[in-house]
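Appendix B, record 7
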Amino acid sequence: MDAFPLRLVLEGHEGVVLRRLEEEDWDVELRLAHVEDIPPWTMYPADLDEDGARLRAQRNVRAADAGHGIRYVVDEGGEALGTVGFGRSQDGFEVFYALLPEARGRGLVTGAVTALSAWLAAQGERVVWLSTLDGNAASEAVATRCGFARFRSGTHVDGRPLTVWSRTLEW
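Structure tokens (predicted):
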């Protein structure tokens, strides 16, 4: 597998790129954690403070450097709109995402998940995963638009029910 790309252009979204999250991007981590509907549906902790956001960014940089996964900033003209990425698991790679409210409804997550899936396919990966907490209609819609199919039910680390989705990649 090639090294994770540092930057991907988001096709169909002029001026939007996915750029590797760096330590100085801790502020987008903090902003996302304080959006009311993000912590309930993601792994962002609602009580994240600046120190925690800095640590979270540092951990993500180390994970990318070690090849465990990567988080990207969805960047439009220098403005951070959210994050997307993928992490390595025992079954392959799982994609994840969170956008600020003002960036939603533009197809950015759909485009980003599609771009990440295409890169993984080019690396020879055969399947990509996505998990949604039950009731998260917006993420379920993203999964459907991106060609994922319900694979199985599961349980989040905090005990809440979730659905695991899979997408077979063609290369």
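Remarks on this record: DSSP finds four helices and eight strands in the chain. The beta strands are 7-9, 16-20, 69-76, 79-89, 92-99, 127-133, 149-155, 161-168.
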